Amino acid sequence: MSKKTRNFEHESLQDSQGITGYLNAITEGFNKGELVFTDDDEEIRLTPEGLANIKIKVTHTKNSQSLSIKLNWSSSERSENEESPLFIEAKKRSGKKKSK
């Protein structure tokens, strides 16, 4: 069984309006339950649900400032092996108990 990791990266210079547009689209995607990232070469869909971990890192030096936001959550996508449900059944033990 092989699991394929897909990555999407985009980097560009944006003004405040462009940045807030991206952040608003991410917020809307979380509210709707699906985020779709596309560019000329690729597309990737994420389906956030349940609890998500958020990590915010801010750096401020004399010459630069940065803000990093990282979000992660468990995926609800099933692998091939998870398609079959698991059944667990408790049964009474057969046979006689040993007498002392």
TrEMBL record:
Designated name of the protein: Amphi-Trp domain-containing protein
Domain Amphi-Trp: 1-82
Organism per entry: Thiosulfativibrio zosterae
Pfam family, one: Amphi-Trp
Spans annotated as Disordered: 67-100
Superkingdom of this protein's organism: Bacteria
